[in-house]
């Protein structure tokens, strides 16, 4: 990440003005976005809270112990600026093409550790296939067996039940 961010300094400079109030350094912003993705932080407010109290997050982003953390709304505005300048695609492509990463990737195979991915579907979203009596129908779920053959998720059609 350090090499890629260093190589994109000119691209960062073109996305930011030399006048006006100081903004969040784009390198720090991208590092914060990486943390948000890696640790499944659901919102910018929660991310700012994590950066405020988590020393690992502060270190990775480049903030010292006494440095103030950005306001969530300021973070969002700067994030939008990076997205408009298509910087995120440059960073991703830079990481993929990096000499240390290139040998780890394959166009033939893609693997994901599913234990680390939170499902959008909870047990409450599984309903009997074929509809049923509606959203507010009287139901007694105690003792009801659910399986992929008899139930489906209303929030994620690809979700499956596993043990």
UniProtKB/TrEMBL annotation:
Region (Disordered): 128-163
Record's compositionally biased regions (Basic and acidic residues): 136-163
Segments forming domain Transposase InsH N-terminal: 7-81
InterPro entries the record matches: Transposase_InsH_N
Residue intervals passing through the bilayer: none
Pfam family, one: DUF772
Protein's recorded name: Transposase InsH N-terminal domain-containing protein
Source species: marine metagenome
């Amino acid at each position: 990440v350090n090499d890629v961010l260093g190589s994109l300094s000119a691209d960062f400079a073109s996305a930011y003005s030399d006048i006006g109030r100081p903004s969040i350094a784009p390198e720090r912003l991208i590092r914060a976005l990486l943390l948000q993705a890696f640790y499944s932080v659901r919102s910018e407010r929660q991310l700012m809270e994590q950066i405020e109290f988590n020393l690992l997050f502060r270190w990775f982003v480049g903030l010292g112990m006494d440095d103030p953390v950005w306001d969530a709304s300021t973070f969002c505005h700067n994030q939008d600026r990076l997205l408009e300048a298509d910087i995120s695609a440059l960073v991703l492509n830079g990481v993929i093409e990096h000499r240390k990463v290139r040998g780890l990737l394959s166009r033939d195979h893609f693997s994901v550790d599913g234990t680390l991915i939170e499902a959008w579907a909870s047990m409450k979203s599984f309903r009997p296939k074929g509809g049923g009596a509606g959203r507010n129908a009287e139901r007694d779920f105690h003792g009801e067996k659910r399986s992929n053959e008899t139930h489906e998720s209303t929030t994620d059609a690809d979700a499956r039940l596993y043990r």
